[in-house]
Design goal:
2 domains, single chain, Rossmann fold, about 15% strand
């Protein structure tokens, strides 16, 4: 474990080396981990746990996800159960990895089948923090823990297979057995984390929902569209506008920032780029900070989660989502983006996506 202090805050990070294979086996050897849901997180985490030698079963209703689980080697009636209640009953750890709306809908079944002393595990603080909306209130006789990977389940799996590890946060909400923390940390490493930062369920969900709507996805797309449309309006071609807005950012600059930091990026670009970036970053901060303040306020108040639960619980949610995604795909910026991606040398001769 490493301890550091930044901004007056002391933090301790748990590393993969703190939990070697023998220690993981000692902590998790007697556990049966029931994965409820086989979406991107359920799939990535369950496969990594299985590869670590942990006993894993999957509970998912029949459908596309169930079929995918069978393709991945989970055996019906042995390690794969279409009856979620049965999977929960068999689990000493229940990893509740359905969508947030799905967790609300399936909670009565899960709660009724939780065994005394089991660990109820989340990868998002949503259901617990907004329990007035979700009605997810765990019984007192279980541990309630969280491991939240800072990326999609696809990334969790990919980094694990590459011998790396994703950055995750962890939290203990309820410790019934006295083992909640060690269970949480061992599971965090076993699902593929390279290191873990401690948080709370509240802080995880407030920061996560703000990030998704902000810099991680919502804001970045809004900024990209704005710059692209200005360049196109001023006479630049689609390819030029895309290259200067998306391609250079995602293929060159962002990976370098991830590897070395923004200060390094500024120190290793042209003097013209340095001057421009340093002069304009403050203007963008000033322009967008009020938006982030409003966003955080809406997240914390529960207004954003109310929108999510209402929209995602609709019977026609998938149809409406496809209509929204079709509009995104139809944007000129992503039409030219598809062409540019197909031109990358590493994609030549491969199936186009």
């Amino acid at each position: 474990m490493r301890t550091f202090k930044v901004g007056g805050i002391k933090e301790t990070v748990v590393e993969r080396t703190d939990f070697p294979a023998a220690k993981l086996k000692k902590i998790l050897g007697g556990e049966t981990v029931a994965i409820v849901g086989y979406g991107v997180q359920g799939r990535g985490q369950s496969l990594n746990l299985r590869d670590h030698g942990v006993k894993v079963i999957v509970g998912v209703r029949k459908g596309a996800s169930y079929n995918l689980a069978k393709q991945d080697g989970w055996k019906p009636g042995v390690t794969l159960f279409e009856d979620i209640g049965e999977a929960v009953r068999r689990g000493t750890v229940v990893q509740y990895l359905l969508s947030d709306a799905g967790q609300k809908a399936s909670w009565p079944v899960v709660k009724a089948n939780l065994q005394k002393g089991a660990a109820l595990y989340f990868s998002h603080g949503f259901s617990i923090v907004y329990r007035k909306q979700t009605k997810v209130i765990p019984p007192k006789y279980v541990d309630v823990i969280l491991v939240a990977p800072k990326g999609s389940g696809t990334t969790v799996r990919r980094l694990f297979l590459e011998g790396r590890g994703i950055n995750s946060s962890f939290a203990v909400h309820q410790d019934y057995t006295g083992r909640a923390r060690e269970r949480c940390l061992a599971l965090g490493i076993a699902i593929g984390s390279g290191f873990l930062f401690e948080t709370t369920f509240e802080n995880e969900v407030y920061s996560d929902l703000t990030g998704e709507r902000g810099v991680l996805m919502g804001a970045i797309y809004g900024l990209m569209r704005a710059q692209y449309e200005v360049l196109r309006k001023k006479g630049h071609s689609p390819s030029e506008a895309f290259n200067e807005t998306v391609e250079e950012a995602t293929q060159s600059l962002y990976p370098l920032i991830g590897e070395n930091g923004m200060d390094w990026m500024y120190a290793n670009c042209s003097t013209t780029a340095q001057r421009g970036a340093l002069d304009w970053c403050g203007k963008f901060e000033k322009a967008t900070k009020p938006v982030f303040e409003d966003l955080y306020k809406r997240v914390r108040s529960g207004k954003e989660t109310a929108v999510v639960l209402k929209a995602n619980s609709r019977a026609d949610y998938r149809k409406r989502l496809e209509q929204e995604l079709a509009r995104v795909r139809g944007d000129e910026i992503w039409q030219i983006g598809k062409i540019v991606r197909e031109l990358r040398p590493e994609r030549q001769g491969k199936k186009k996506k």
